[in-house]
Amino acid sequence: xxxxxxxxxxxxxxxxxxxxxxxxxxxxxxxxxxxxxxxxxxxxxxxxxxxxxxxxxxxxxxxxxxxxxxxxxxxxxxxxxxxxxxxxxxxxxxxxxxxxxxxxxxxxxxxxxxxxxxxxxxxxxxxxxxxxxxxxxxxxxxxxxxxxxxxxxxxxxxxxxxxxxxxxxxxxxxxxxxxxxxxxxxxxxxxxxxxxxxxxxxxxxxxxxxxxxxxxxxxxxxxxxxxxxxxxxxxxxxxxxxxxxxxxxxxxxxxxxxxxxxxxxxxxxxxxxxxxxxxxxxxxxxxxxxxxxxxxxxxxxxxxxxxxxxxxxxxxxxxxxxxxxxxxxxxxxxxxxxxxxxxxxxxxxxxxxxxxxxxxxxxxxxxxxxxxxxxxxxxxxxxxxxxxxxxxxxxxxxxxxxxxxxxxxxxxxxxxxxxxxxxxx
Length: 425
What we know:
By secondary structure, the chain is mainly α. It has one domain. It has helices at 6-20, 36-54, 64-84, 86-89, 110-130, 134-153, 176-194, 201-221, 224-239, 243-263, 266-276, 278-297, 332-359, 361-364, 370-385, 394-424, and strands at residues 92-99, 102-109, 160-161, 168-169. The strands form 2 sheets. Strands 1-2 form a two-stranded antiparallel sheet. Strands 3-4 form a two-stranded antiparallel ribbon. β1 (92-99) and β2 form a beta hairpin. α1 (6-20) runs parallel beside α6 (134-153) and α6 packs across α8.
């Protein structure tokens, strides 16, 4: 075959996507003077095109409930913006940008937000189909970890967010919580490298470095939801590990944590202590989360049946919000309920349940695999984080693609084992 064969091309595309996935839109690349997020978008589009024409099993990696959820979102969005509110598709909404290292509000078109959402959604499907082997998982984990390390040491990544009078790094993202999510992904994927016996020593070294960078990014972001998700996911891994491996993980985590905490800045340490203290939580009312949820739940009849549409949640509380500004739901489950009605919420919950069942196949057969155990922790970490986050972020869609690929490989292994057993009998 002349040139690069299809397998190597597939690996190149997924590696490039994984490398650029941690880079936030506020980071400008030197020499080319373009946003780093555009590099990810470019490679994501190439992977999606490759997926459309050359990869088999377009939808097979995801459970039927999730495919139905995506179908609901597509139809609902077409009706909302094509028939009911076409003017909102062309309207301008507020988002956050960066100028001279300071965060500020700038304008952005609504259709750009919707296009980005569907790009991330299609990317999750393409990534899940492109991951064919456990070796591909290792390659993606190393590429994402290397990209996260490069992002953290870049000059532009040290953008500060002073919301609620706290000193938090954003890592070039539009919100420090997005840095926290990306850091959580880096930590889980780094642990995948470290816990895989077949990984070569150099891969172990790179995994250790990216694990350190991920922990530093998680702490620096001050994202409480990402920290809780990481802790719960790590607990799942420990619970399903042998005593020897459990002890090793605890010692490794303690040493790496101590190293990072010794080198964080005083401003970050003070802000982190304040955000995690009882007084700090009370003063900010957990970033107004209870008030936001209450504002939306009191308007339940407005969206219970049909929902109000993608990126239209704030229309529900337009004249009734009690918070300083009209916030979005800040909860993926509540957001699905508001935007797509009760059916959207039910399908999201069923999807997470089906993902869990697909990843837990080896455990049910009494044959625990460390990579599968780690993915269970990864999924549960996201399920918890979604109570205070969004299911539309690039980090979530990237993670979902990896989780879906692991689910598909597990189901293939189970079918192969069943066929082998039947043949022997």
